[in-house]
Amino acid sequence: MRTLALALSALLALAPSAASAPTAPSAVSAHADTSEIPRLTDGRGRVLTLRGWNVEDKTHRGEAALSAITEKHFRDMRAQGFNFARLLVFWDDLEPKRGRYSESYLRKIERILDWAHKHRMYVLIDAHQDVFGPAFGHRGIPEWATRTDGLPFTPHPDDWFAEYFEPAVQRAFTHLYEDGDLRRAQARMWRVLAGRFAHHPAVIGYDLINEPMGELREGEDLPTAARRIERDHLTPLYNRLADAVRSVDGDNWVFVEPTPIVGEGVPTGLGRIEDHKVVYAPHFYNTAMEAGADYDPSAGWIESYEAAVTAYPKEYRVPVVVGEWGPLNNSLPNMGRFYREALTSLNRYSSGWAGYVWCYGGGYCAVDGSGAWRTNKEQTAAPYAEAVAGRVVEQSPSRLTYVAGRGGATELSLPPSPSGWRVAVEGRAWLVPSPAGRAVVRAVPGATVTVSVSPGATR
Predict the structure, then answer these.
(1) Strand partners, 126
(2) DSSP assignment, residue 230?
(3) pTM, entire model
């Protein structure tokens, strides 16, 4: 969910050091070096690329929870070539009363995971929060786990992003990070979730908390506060929660997010997460665009963002998957260019991404009520290599070169196209029969293989 856009814009404007912290490079500057960023892999060692969308139901609770998500979501996403969904789940639904976990909610999650598996999609289970949780009129951390020390909270119905900076909300984050009983409760919640779904074939990992924030200190600008919160609160939080997950699940990936301030081109202050399967999962939003502005190609925002988000994975040698991205108003004059340049950037350094959000209607929805693409969002559907059985040498939307390993077949996703797709293979490799919308390549181990995809007659 897009949070903080207007509030960040206002706070950054008031903080000179915040505005000057990241220097936006020119649009023609060199791209960040991404060669040191490892790739996501599956259980057979194949290099994975995840492309997909968030799926959510923030409206319904209790017995109706998650009812807005149907099998159609996964069938339609897969039909467009996507293989990944980031599923929003809420602690307040899972544990509405302290120590009492909802078996009904777990079954609903399991049903969604079954649909995803049926349609050959990976799922990231995201412990989502917006403005902390129900105590402030939103979703996420339960009311019983919300402590404010009596500090004030004023709703902002016309700008709810600003509610993150209300004293009560900020103090609630501090207690979540610092109070021993709340630390243990959050860890137990993750043991329940991961323990239930550790072996579900659709699950690829767990996003430990969505868009975490914290309490600003007097006189502290936003980038400085973000780096401190990431260093002092989020790093130990993620290590605790990773330990909780590992007590019941030794195989799936744990995804860790910085604060949303990374969207302003501010490198994270996160430290090392002591786990063998960590994914760095920032979000990709621009405050001006979220406040209604068109994309400004001359501002260098995409380049600044890429430089900021690639610093951490290069230092700590972890893959990157961008958990949310996509503007609200995608039909402004420059948005076609934005999608082209954003996708080029995302595909250069990340192992995947999830757009926000797969739903049928207006606003952020990917498609309209009839299932037709909303303006410019069709650019997200393009050929890609879902899994590469070997070491990737070079990769682009139209060409893949790899040294074949022993991990099985290489699989390509081919979205619907009026002209179809022509797939050509060079090297000691061959195409094998595969369903519509896919191409499967097998190769002699050790062979250098090049696979090219171009528009043309369906192979």
Answers:
(1) 88, 207
(2) I
(3) 0.94
